[in-house]
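A.,

Following up on our hallway conversation. Structure tokens first:
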């Protein structure tokens, strides 16, 4: 999966030009997925994140 596909799943509708702000849920989803990915990478490779 590429980043664009993940973003299209989290945010199915493209942002309009006048809609510059990012919703709180979107920020939380990104933060949560980053934490999950880093935790998964740490478990799999044992690198000290």
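Then the amino acids I'd put at each of the 49 positions:
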């Amino acid at each position: 999966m590429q980043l664009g596909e993940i973003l299209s799943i989290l945010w199915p509708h493209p942002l309009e030009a006048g809609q510059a702000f990012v919703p709180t849920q979107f920020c939380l989803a990104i933060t949560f997925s980053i934490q999950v990915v880093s935790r998964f990478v740490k478990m799999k490779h044992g690198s000290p994140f």
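Residues 4 and 10 are 10 Å apart (CA to CA). Curious whether your intuition agrees with the design.

B.
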